[in-house]
Specification:
FAD/NAD(P)-binding domain, Polyamine Oxidase, Chain A, domain 2, 5-stranded mixed beta sheet, 19 helices, 21 strands, disordered N terminus
Length: about 525
C-alpha cells in the first residue's frame, strides 16, 4: 500500500533503531550489527550520508561541508577509521601509521587504485586574513608576524597578556573573559572576537565560558610557543600526534574524495552485515510507555508512507534534542520543564558558497594556489567567516586541476534574510566579498553553487544554562541513548561523536547502562575539559 496518508507499516518488532546517518549514527549502526545479534534499522531524514561530514558533489567538484580533518587522540577511533579505509601506500607515509597500538595490517606498499577509497596524509595549513594580510594560525611570534602587527600593537599584545596572567578573571563567566584569560585582551580583540561573533551571531560577552572550555581546551599562548619550539627541533611524523593540542596539529588523514567517502564505506558495511538504512525517512514520532520508547515512526519523504518499528529493544538518537522532544508522544509523557528547556535550545546554521575559479587573485595561471586548507576571514564589514581551498584538501575534490575550487562560508540562523536569499544573489555576495578583500576577481569566476546546512552548530546560549534538567530526564528513558553533536547538543568533533556511539554499544554488550559515562566523552583523559 502506498500514497499520501497510507497506513503505518510495522517493519519489525524489537531490534535497534538508529536515528540519523551521520558519524555517530553510522558508527552506532556498525557497532550494533557487528557486536550484537540485534536487527538494526537506520532512519535518515535526508538523501545524504554523513550529516555535516557528507561530501556534496557539484558538476564533478566535491565540497567538504565545514572542513573535516581526520585526526584523533583516540587510538580506538583512528584504528577504526583505518580499518574502514586504508592509507595510501608508499614508504615513509605508510610507516607514519604504524604506531604501537595500531591493529590495522598495512599492505607493505602496494598501490591503491585511484578509483578506490584511501586515506591521504595531508599537511595542515590555516591562516587568518586580517587588515589585508595573512597571519599564521595559531599565531607564531616570528619576526614576520611582529612586522605585520607593527611594534606598537605587538607591545600592546605582550603587555595585555602579562596583565591577564598576573590578574586573570578568577571564574570566567563568559567567552570573552575566557579568551582574555588565555590570550590577553589585545590579542583577543585582534584575532578572536570578530570571527567568533560571526560564527555564533552573538557577542562573546553573552556566550558561556563552557564553549571555550570544550573547544579551545589546552590552546594558549604558552602551548603555541611550546609547539613552535618543538617544531624547530623536529616533530612526530605520524598521524597520531598525541602530545599535540588539537588546534595545533600539522598533519591529518583525509579520504581522497572527502569525508563523505568514509561514511559511504561504513554505510555499505552496515548494509552488508544485514542492517537496513532507510534514506529520506524522517522520524517524527516516538511513543512512550512506562519510561521506555515503545515505538518509533518515520515518514517517507517521497510517498508520505509511514514506517513503524514496534517495541524496539534500543533506540540511538542523533536528531537535534529540540526535534526529539517534540516527537515524543503522548505530550503528557514529557514534563513541562523539560519541554521548556528543549524548546529554548539554540542552533547556529551554516551555508557555503562553492565557487569555481580560473585562479585566485594575485595568482597567474599555473603559478599555484594559496597553501591553506582554510582561511579565517577577520575583516570587518565582510559577512564571510572562512574560505576553504578544496584543492589543498585533496586533488580528488576538483574535476579540473587547472581550476581553483573554493568554499566561502557564512554563519547565520535559519530564517535570517541571508539564509533565505536566493542562490544567485548569494553567489554574487561571495564573489563581491572575496573581491573586496583582494582574494578573487569577478572575471575569474566560472561557476557557483550554494549548500545550506541547518543546525550545524549547537549553541551554548538560550536555555543551555538549564540543560541538566533535560539531560537528567533523558537519562531516565530506559532504552534511549542520545549520541553525537546534535543528539547531545554538544559541539563535538566527529571523533568525539563516534566515541559516544561506541561507548553506548560497549555498555549494551556488557549488559549495563551508564549515561554519565557517555556524557563524559570529550571531558576525560586527553579530551579533558577544564571548566
Amino acid at each position: 500500500m502506498s500514497g499520501r496518508g497510507a497506513q503505518a507499516k510495522t517493519v519489525q518488532r524489537g531490534g535497534a533503531v538508529v536515528i540519523g546517518a551521520g558519524p555517530a549514527g553510522l558508527t552506532a549502526a556498525y557497532e550494533l550489527r557487528t557486536r550484537t545479534d540485534l536487527p538494526v534499522t537506520v532512519f535518515e531524514a535526508t538523501g545524504a550520508l554523513g550529516g555535516i561530514s557528507q561530501t556534496v558533489v557539484y558538476r564533478g567538484n566535491r565540497m567538504d561541508i565545514g572542513g573535516h580533518r581526520f585526526f584523533s587522540k583516540s587510538d580506538r577511533v583512528l584504528d577504526w577509521w583505518l580499518a574502514m579505509i586504508p592509507p595510501e601506500a608508499g614508504g615513509a607515509q605508510a610507516l607514519a601509521y604504524q604506531g604501537k597500538t595500531t591493529r590495522v595490517a598495512l599492505d607493505g606498499g602496494a598501490p591503491i587504485p585511484p578509483e578506490a577509497p584511501a586515506f591521504m596524509l595531508r599537511e595542515r595549513s590555516s591562516r587568518i586574513f586580517f587588515a589585508g594580510q595573512f597571519f599564521d594560525y595559531p599565531i607564531r611570534l616570528t619576526p614576520a608576524t611582529l612586522r605585520k602587527l607593527g611594534l606598537r600593537r605587538a607591545a600592546r599584545i605582550g603587555a595585555s597578556y602579562l596583565r591577564s596572567t598576573l590578574s586573570p578573571f578568577r571564574e570566567p563567566q563568559n567567552l570573552e573573559e575566557f579568551f582574555i584569560n588565555r590570550f590577553g585582551r589585545e590579542l583577543y580583540e585582534t584575532f578572536f572576537r570578530d570571527y567568533t561573533e560571526k560564527v555564533w551571531g552573538a557577542p562573546c560577552s553573552e556566550i558561556p565560558a563552557d564553549w571555550g572550555a570544550q573547544r579551545v581546551k589546552g590552546l594558549s599562548i604558552g602551548s603555541a610557543l611550546r609547539h613552535f619550539v618543538r617544531g624547530l627541533v623536529g616533530r612526530d611524523g605520524g598521524a597520531r600526534q598525541k602530545g599535540t593540542e588539537t588546534s595545533l596539529i600539522e598533519q591529518f588523514l583525509y579520504p581522497r574524495r572527502g569525508p563523505g567517502e568514509m561514511w559511504e564505506v561504513v554505510a555499505a558495511r552496515v548494509a552488508g552485515a544485514g542492517g537496513a538504512i532507510r534514506m529520506r525517512h524522517r522520524v517524527d514520532r516516538l511513543r512512550m510507555e512506562d519510561g521506555r520508547v515503545a515505538a518509533v515512526e518515520a515518514v517517507e519523504e517521497e510517498t508520505g508512507r509511514r514506517v513503524r518499528v514496534e517495541a524496539p529493544d534500543f533506540v540511538v538518537s542523533t536528531m537535534p534534542l529540540r526535534t526529539l522532544v517534540r516527537a515524543l508522544v503522548p505530550f503528557e509523557a514529557v514534563p513541562s520543564r523539560v519541554r521548556a528547556v528543549a524548546e529554548g535550545l539554540v542552533y547556529r546554521d551554516f551555508l557555503i558558497v562553492g565557487l569555481l575559479l580560473k585562479r585566485l587573485a594575485g595568482k597567474a595561471p599555473g603559478e599555484g594556489l594559496l597553501r591553506d586548507n582554510w582561511i579565517y576571514i577577520q575583516e570587518p564589514g565582510v559577512k564571510a567567516g572562512r574560505l576553504q581551498v578544496f584543492n589543498n584538501w585533496s586533488p580528488y575534490l576538483v574535476a579540473d586541476p587547472a581550476t581553483v575550487w573554493v568554499g566561502v562560508e557564512f554563519f547565520c540562523n535559519e530564517g535570517d534574510p541571508l539564509w533565505g536569499e536566493a542562490d544567485e544573489p548569494l553567489i554574487g555576495r561571495a564573489v563581491e566579498e572575496l573581491t573586496l578583500i583582494g582574494l578573487a576577481a569577478p572575471e575569474d569566476v566560472l561557476d557557483g553553487t550554494v549548500v545550506r546546512m541547518p543546525k550545524a552548530y549547537p549553541a551554548y546560549t538560550g536555555t543551555y544554562d538549564r540543560f541538566e534538567v533535560l539531560r537528567h530526564w533523558l537519562d531516565g528513558v530506559e532504552n534511549l541513548a542520545p549520541v553525537g553533536r546534535n543528539g547531545m547538543h554538544r559541539y563535538n568533533n566527529q571523533d568525539h561523536s563516534m566515541l559516544t556511539a561506541m561507548t553506548v554499544v560497549d555498555q549494551l554488550v556488557e549488559g549495563r547502562r551508564d549515561p554519565a559515562e557517555v556524557w563524559a566523552v570529550n571531558t576525560e583523559q586527553e579530551y579533558h575539559e577544564e571548566k
